[in-house]
Amino acid sequence: AEDRAKLKEDILYICTHDLLKDIYSGAYILVGESEVKENNDKIQKPDLIAINKTSKNITIIDYKTGKANQEHIAQISNYAMLLEETGRVIDKKYIVYTQSKEVVSV
Q: Which of 10, 56, 79, 81 is the most buried (most CB within 10 A)?
């Protein structure tokens, strides 16, 4: 029960975070682990692609359990590049560190 309460607290924190609350407000279509193909046919899967219902622009969110790492920035930037190659407009990119409850705008 303690783990469940902690998980609920963490989810609530993420969903109401100043940088993320609009994403979870109903103004976006949320697509989890959508496949994005690289030129070499390798598949990448961003954790969450949020599509603004009005502008159709995209926010990419990647969740991490460990500490901040430069590789995380490179990874989310790669997702953005691949989506831009398909004609999508990327509005924002966020890395959410679930253990430290840190949200980083990239």
A: 79
